[in-house]
Structures are given as structure tokens and as C-alpha cells.
Write a structure and sequence with these properties.
The chain has 200 residues and is mainly α. The chain has helices at residues 6-11, 13-23, 27-38, 40-53, 67-96, 105-115, 117-122, 131-157, 161-194. It starts with 5 loop residues before the first helix and ends in a 6-residue tail after the last helix.
């Protein structure tokens, strides 16, 4: 069933992680029923928000992107999320032996995918890009994703809570480094002439 675990991750995360683990979902199935759908929320919302509403800096007129520029950014944004989920999952799998976990790559990608659920869902706020509002609502979503990571690692990896805490902290550190690297790549691409194009 498509998106069947989403509600449970918010109502009873521990029990839902056990259900997700017992599903033994493949990478392809996980992407088909979860990631491809939820990752589209922020990409589509961002496209609509930046072309139809824009954002304001101070008391000036709203700044909007051209359809072509916003479309390219939305596609790249979507692809970055798809690659990001797989990369985090691969890194979890790569680090798992260090913490005494013996898991398949598919289980690690599933862990990364479901951990990102709150961040995918809060992406709907990009429909109306008000910076302070996005920050106020985005920070709790980020905090809940971190909570899901810390509660999901011991269950999905089959390790103790203590090892799970250390493992989750290592995954979180990698995620932060990956985010900074993504920002650096974005700045480089903008410097090469792929910067956003604004409407006049």
C-alpha cells in the first residue's frame, strides 16, 4: 500500500519502525511507494511558490523566478533528494559493520527514506515562500526527522540503544557534511552561469 507507514511514524514511531523492518521492502519498492511520491512535494511546491507568489525581501515587490528557471531548479531539487536518500542509505550500510549491525543495503535505504518523511511533508510550505514561516515550521520537522533517525536505527539495524545512539550520531554528522557539500556544489553551479533567472 502506498505511503502506508507515514501516519504510524507520527503516532507510534517505535511500533512503526518494527513494521517497516518486517516488511523487508526492496529499494525499488521503497522508492516506488514512498520516495518518488513524497520527494515531489517540496519540488512541486517550490516551483509553484517561486513562480506564482515569489518572496519578499523587505518592503519591495515579490521576487519571482521565470518558469524555465524554476522548472530546471525543481527537477534538480527532486533528483538531489532521490540521490540523497540513496546516498545516506549507502553510507548507513557502509558504517553498519562498525557498530555490529549486519543488514542489507535495502534496509539501510528504507531507513533513510522513512527518516526523511517529515522533511518531505513540510516541503508543502514552499508553496508560499515566507522565510520566517518556513523556518518556524521547518525546524520542528527537522527535529522530528532526527528523532526518527535515533529511534529507527536500533530497530532497523538490530543493535542496542547505546550503539544505536552512536550510530545515529555518525549518520547525522554525515548528513550535515553532505548538506554543506550540496550548498558548495550549488554555489559552484551558479558561478558557472546556472544561477536562477528572475522575472522583470
Amino acid at each position: 500500500m502506498i505511503l502506508k507507514h507515514v501516519w504510524g511514524l507520527f503516532v507510534n514511531p517505535k511500533r512503526e519502525w518494527e513494521a517497516i523492518r518486517d516488511d523487508e521492502c526492496t529499494i525499488g519498492k521503497c522508492y516506488a511507494i514512498h520516495v518518488l511520491i513524497l520527494a515531489a512535494i517540496p519540488a512541486i511546491s517550490g516551483f509553484i511558490g517561486t513562480t506564482q507568489f515569489g518572496w519578499q525581501l523587505g518592503a519591495g515587490d515579490p521576487v519571482k523566478l521565470t518558469l524555465q528557471s524554476a522548472g530546471l531548479i525543481a527537477v534538480l531539487y527532486y533528483l538531489a533528494m532521490l540521490v540523497g536518500v540513496y546516498t545516506i542509505g549507502w553510507m548507513i550500510h557502509w558504517m553498519s559493520g562498525t557498530y555490529g549491525a549486519k543488514t542489507m543495503l535495502s534496509q539501510c535505504v528504507v531507513l533513510a527514506a522513512y527518516t526523511a518523511t517529515p522533511l518531505f511533508l513540510i516541503g508543502v510550505m514552499e508553496l508560499y515562500p515566507i522565510l520566517w514561516l518556513n523556518m518556524v515550521l521547518g525546524l520542528p520537522a527537522l527535529a522530528y526527522s532526527i528523532y526518527l533517525l535515533y529511534s529507527g536505527v536500533p530497530v532497523m539495524m538490530g543493535i542496542s540503544e547505546e550503539r544505536g545512539f552512536l550510530f545515529s550520531s555518525a549518520v547525522l554528522a554525515f548528513g550535515l557534511v553532505a548538506f554543506v557539500a550540496l550548498l558548495a556544489v550549488t554555489a559552484i553551479l551558479w558561478g558557472m552561469g546556472l544561477e536562477p533567472q528572475f522575472t522583470r
